[in-house]
Amino acid sequence: MSVDVAHVRPARPKDANALANTYEEAWRGAYQGIIPHLHLERMIARHGPRWWNHVLQRRASVLVLDFGGEVAGYVTFGRSRIGRGPFAGEIFELYLHPTYQGLGLGSKLFNGARQKLREMRLNGLLVWALADNETACDFYLHLGGKPVAEGLERFDETGLRKIAFAWR
Question: What's the whole-number average pLDDT of the chain?
């Protein structure tokens, strides 16, 4: 009998501190040197345990990757923000704590969110990633995502190119 030490489950209010820590560490690792420093620090400061607790109390769609009882990552998802079109579902955020990156665990979170979106009858999936975040772009390409659109994410006077990856 094998035991799966890494499994995806719905986030619970008691996960707020771990989610805040994962957010901070993952965002620093992914965006330091890409997003202007002050903006990155403000975003991290805003997404602390209190913010996550509020999100979880609103019953937002958040799954966590539970690795041996520790929150190793999270994914948020729901109805696509672009409205109509062939992509009704969207993954808003998918992040792993740096300790757990590169182990193939991100695909567990992705597949968990994709399954939940199907259950919600939100077929077709979209994910946006900053073009300069090569790790994320490579991850979504590896999972079979096709670049379907581009946009610009603004941080005051700095504009960063973003890419939408899609799955049918």
Answer: 95
| Cβ atoms of residues 75 and 62 within 8 Å | yes
Give the integer Cα–Cα distance in Å for 70 and 13.
Answer: 14
Q: Are 149 and 128 in contact (CB under 8 A)?
A: no
Q: Are strands 6-10 and 62-67 parallel, antiparallel or unpaired?
A: antiparallel
Give dist(CA 149, CA 162) in Å, integer. Answer: 9
Which two three-digit tokens encode residue 74?
């999270």
Residue 128, token pair as written in the block: 């946006």
SS (H, E, C) the chain: CCCCCEEEEECCHHHHHHHHHHHHHHHHHHHECCECHHHHHHHHHHCCHHHHHHHHHCCCCEEEEEECCEEEEEEEEEECCCCCCCCCEEEEEEEECHHHCCCCCHHHHHHHHHHHHHHCCCCCEEEEEECCCHHHHHHHHHCCCEEEEEEEEEECCEEEEEEEEEEC
Q: How far is CA 57 from CA 16, 51, 53, 109, 168, in A?
A: 10, 10, 6, 21, 31
Over range 135-144, report the average pLDDT: 98
**Confidence check: pLDDT of 1 > 60:** no
pLDDT at residue 105 above 90? yes
